[in-house]
Amino acid sequence: DPDSLCSTISWRDDDDRVIWVYKIQDTPGYGDDLNVDRSISQLTAYIEEQNIKWLGLEQSRDRKDDLTEVEDPRVDICLFAIPPHRMRALDLKVMYELGRHVPLVPVVTKADTMSVREASTYRNDVATKLSNPMLPGIRDKINVFKFERDTLERAGITDHATPTPPFLVVASNDINEDLNAGDPPVYWPERRYPWGIAEAFNRDHSDLLGL
Asked: What are the residue ranges spanned by the domains of the chain?
């Protein structure tokens, strides 16, 4: 039931006078099934079904509405969450198959569970395995979305030995209450530990803001 796992996010760009609306489709537990091929077939079938649905709208002779006014069901991009510390063969296989159907952006979550050195090493390790998965039956690299270097620089993603992918992110539902109570209020998510604070929007801590 994909609709039960779908969230809608929208915001207004007052400068360009545009309202952006995105649907975020979550797919929790895709690796819980021992038969990963079944999960892969469900995911790729959903993507292709949306493409076919849109093609049917484009080709319909009875269409009365302008397509710019019709909700586009297609999947534009897949943000693939990778756990920290370990790159699983299951994740590589799923990413390989998804990358054949939709632009894929790998994202390492919970980056604050790694030290600075561990994070740098793991970023390079993930990038290497994306280029050469070394899995049975898979000889090609995983097709991930390639950002232009100047695009990454404009987004504040710089000084990485290996250009993104993947993004390393810190995320949190907790916010800095002092900043939020200021005038104007500032939304600043963070994770507090006895030894310090990991700030989701601090570019030295996380790629979240750039992503």
From this structure: 1-76
